[in-house]
Design brief:
single chain; 155 residues; alpha+beta; OB fold (Dihydrolipoamide Acetyltransferase, E2P); 2 domains; five-stranded antiparallel beta sheet; 3 helices; elongated
Amino acid sequence: MKRILNAMLVGTLAVVLGACASSSPDVIQRGDAQRMAKVEDAVVLTVRSVVVDGSQSGVGATVGGVVGAVGGYGGSGVQREGQVLGVLAGVAGAVAGNAIERFATREDAFEILVQLKGGERRAIVQAKGGEVFTPGDAVIVVTTGGKVRVAKAPK
C-alpha cells in the first residue's frame, strides 16, 4: 500500500509541475532575459479567442502506467491474476495519465492579426495575459530568440 501511495504522489507531482509551464506573454523565460529583441510597430486588425492544445510529453502516460500497474498488481492474491490485472491497469493508467496531462496543459489564447507599419500582416497566437487588445490598438511586435509576442505600444 505504501508503494502505491508513493507512486501516486510522484505521479501527482509530475503532472502538477508539468502544468506549471507557461506561455503567458507576461512571463519571460530565463533564457530570453538580457537578450536583444527586434521590435516592430503595428496596429491590431482582429483578435479572436483560441485554445492552444495541451502537450503530450509522455510524462502523464508513464506515471499513469506505473501507478496503474502497481495498483493493479498489488490488488490480487493470485500471482498470475495479479500480473494480468497489473498489465491491464497499467495500460488504463497510461491512457488516463496521457489525457490528464493533455487537459492540464491546455491554454486559452488569442490569435492577434496585426498590420506592420510597412503594410505586411502577421498573425500571432499568444496565451491570454494582462493586456486586452482591440482592433485599432497601436501595438509592438517583439521577437526574441524566434519567439514572438504582442504588447501595447508605449504612449
